[in-house]
């Protein structure tokens, strides 16, 4: 047997490790980000290309003001540096909330509107999705300072990356940059608790989808309610976040959409959680074991990536000290 651990077929590897990466960023597990990123890099050019666009999308999704800090070069470590920065920062998800609500409205779901003044912003962003060229031209003309210019420039650069919802998030970030007050983003300590590998198996993975279907059937729970509860309580969990009005509006709307009162969601998830964990126990152990064995065989590669990220980040921080006062 070679030094490299033998994994499942490549299609399965990608989705499991891709899911693991974003969960690790959200929860602030720095060492896991380095190991998982190094592993994904080893898979080949396809994964390296994916991380380039995904690092930008994760930044805008999890902490939209950090979109102004994206400074990628041709080196892989520059993208990992962006993920580490997000992991070490308080999360601000207003761009995600507004982008998702706007996408739902654009897709024909008028239930996102409630007659409040906030409807105006959702409509503006739905129109932006319908007419992206006009939106990018307009928002670019609204920038008034270096922070706004930087985030709009980076949002435009990745405007065609990811899913339609991802692209709506980038538009929302650019809009918030010129239409609202920027939140104060602070550094936070890395996570100390053991990472729960089972959370990587969400509804977007074959294993997670199967388990959620089975448990929803066995407990007589509507599948959309179980999937959302799993994401809300586990998949979207962070190491630190600030109040985000638009993220909260999106979550409350989604609860209403699936017919689950937000204040009762924990009553659904509490009995389901241990069953989900148990059903995914073997898959979780296998994922953890495979990544750990790969790590032991590639300690120098991971250490090199970490050193490169630290040098790159130090340089970027020095350049931006007098430009962006986010920290």
Query: How can the largest sheet be summarized?
Result: none
**Helical amount among residues, as a percent range?**
55-70%
- Give the overall average pLDDT: 92
Q: How many helices?
A: 15
Oligomer: single chain
Shape designation: globular
Low-confidence stretches: 1-11, 321-327
Task: Give the radius of gyration.
Answer: 20 Å
- Provide the β-strand percentage band: under 5%
Taken in chain order, the helices and strands follow as HHHHHHHHHHHHHHH
Q: How many individual β-strands?
A: 0
Structural class: mainly alpha
CA distance, first residue to last residue? 48 Å
Explained architecture:
The protein starts with 9 loop residues before the first helix and ends in a 7-residue tail after the last helix. The chain has a domain at 94-179. The protein is mostly helical and 327 residues long. It is built from 15 helices and no strands.
Keywords:
single chain; 327 residues; mainly alpha; 67% helix; 0% strand; disordered N terminus
Q: What's the topology here?
A:
Blueprint: H1 10-27, H2 30-42, H3 45-62, H4 76-87, H5 94-106, H6 119-130, H7 132-142, H8 146-157, H9 164-179, H10 206-218, H11 223-235, H12 245-257, H13 265-279, H14 281-297, H15 299-320
Helix pairs in contact: 1-2, 1-4, 2-3, 2-4, 3-4, 4-15, 5-6, 5-9, 5-12, 6-7, 7-9, 8-9, 10-13, 11-13
Concise overview:
With 327 residues, the protein is mainly alpha-helical.
